[in-house]
Amino acid sequence: MSESFAQSAHDGKSAPTHFYSRIRFWFGLATVIALLAVAAVPTLLLLPAGSKPAPGAPPSVAITIPVSPTVAAPVAGLLAEQARRDQNAISQVLSIRANAVTAKQTDAFLQTTEQSSVDFTTKQLRLITNLNQLPLEQWDYELDGKLDGTSSLARQVRRTFGSNAQTYQVKVRYALTGFGDKPTVALRTMSFIPQGQTWKVVSDIDSGRFRQPWDENYLSVVQGPDVLMMVMGSAKPTPSLMQQASQAVAAVTTFWGSDWQRKVEIVIPASQRELGNLLRGNGADYSSLAALATAEGNGGPDDVPTNVVWVNPSGFAKINSLGRTIVLRHEILHVATGAAIPNDFPLWLEEGTAEYFGYKDSGVKQDVIAANLLQATRSGQVPTRLPTTKDFSPLNGQLDQAYEGSWWAVRYIVQTYSEQALLRVYRNALGQADPATAADRALREELGIDTAQLTAAWRASIKAAA
Ligand SMILES: [Zn+2]
């Protein structure tokens, strides 16, 4: 029902990451419906320190000069000059390649690759075929540090292609039309060999925190005014998914306001296994997950994180249309509020609000939404405090109650004060400098109550309903 996993960054170090999920069941008149509501995966926005050179750092060029000091300087100068020329030539090839992407010129793109390997050429053809389908306003490459002999990939490329092969970390800056004015950054590791007067790409590996869908499988891109769906391989989304997502985007804007991109990128992998592969899940079990929202940024302070809602095709197959709507509303609200970006925001407020909004106007009754919480309360186990980050651990056996208790607290604020009051509390908390006291200060400033008072009223309300 719940689980944890560790995701590896591209440098092989692993960082603990959790996702929160639950499966809920209720009995309708004629059918048993399984509904899955899922929380965002908090992900590291930036790669671990030290895993890549600082932005703008010059490529490192290892030069050994086995000659006497009197001639070392001129030789070193010549080698440095050669390294600079090589780097310029490689940058030129990347510029041609970038132009081929934005101009959707498959042949020009493939001409920048070394085509003796059928496997590599096939993958490059798949990549450009996928990119041709995307509404790319921008696609640029920037060399971001040369990998020397300490990199196993660089050594392997040299063994395969000779000692002249060069391997670089590369930043791809791309922008999808209509998804904001600033590009996002994706990381790649690329290798090049000299061929005639130019250089050719011999290896092109996606090395970001999550894998890019266009590198993994053939895509069908389905675009609406506010939803970009990337359907992978044999995935078959339900015909209504686009409409449901679009309605959820509009509903989020009505609820939250218009200060977000008001568009959402949705990736639909062909299988749960492919989802795990895209998320670099290292064999994690995603079976209780219907969808999740992530945000990834790899560049500098000006880079916009890529917000993506990932659908688990197996999880979505288990839930009905209402369940899918609730899940999409929950996840897309996380995108709008910035919850997918790693932060220490109080989770009872974050998840409670996403749950509240997910279920809002759904017709699902309190007894169903908070079944576990009410059952525990009837057994004398009334919660004593609002759910904390620890309670949302996938290892928590009472994870359901963390979501239900959070939903109850948020719903209590809406019923006692108003929905606008809830949003004021949320936005006030987002603006607080210290996440540890953010909710308490926001409650005091917006509602004139503190956390202890809210907790007492929340407990009384649950007890009264049980
Ligand atoms: Zn959530």
**CATH level-3 fold name of the largest domain:** Glutaredoxin
The CATH C-level name of the largest domain is Alpha Beta
Distance between the termini: 25 Å
The domain count comes to 3
Beta content: 15-25%
Helix content: 40-55%
Q: Low-confidence parts, pLDDT < 50 over ≥5 residues? A: 1-69
DSSP helical segment count: 16
Q: Any ligands, ions or cofactors bound here, and which?
A: zinc ion
The whole-angstrom Rg is 25 Å
Class computed from helices, strands and strand pairing: alpha+beta
SSE sequence, one letter per element: EEEEHHHEHEEEHEEHEHEEHHHHHHHHH
Mean pLDDT: 84
State the strand order across the main sheet: 9-10-11-13-12
Overall description:
This protein has a five-stranded mixed beta sheet. Strands 5-6-7-8 form a four-stranded antiparallel beta sheet. A two-stranded antiparallel sheet has the order 1-2. It has 466 residues and is of the alpha+beta class. The longest helix is centred in the N-terminal third of the chain and has 34 residues, at 69-102. It has helices at residues 69-102, 106-110, 118-133, 152-161, 213-216, 241-256, 272-278, 313-317, 321-337, 347-359, 366-369, 371-378, 399-416, 419-430, 435-447, 451-465; strands spanning 4-8, 14-18, 21-27, 32-38, 136-147, 166-176, 184-195, 198-206, 219-223, 227-232, 264-268, 291-296, 306-311. The chain is built from 16 helices and 13 strands. The protein folds into three domains: 1-47 and 212-343, Glutaredoxin, CATH 3.40.30; 69-206, Roll (Nuclear Transport Factor 2, Chain: A); 344-466, no CATH class. Zinc ion binds next to α9 and α10. Residues 39-40, 330, 334, 351, 354 line the site of zinc ion.
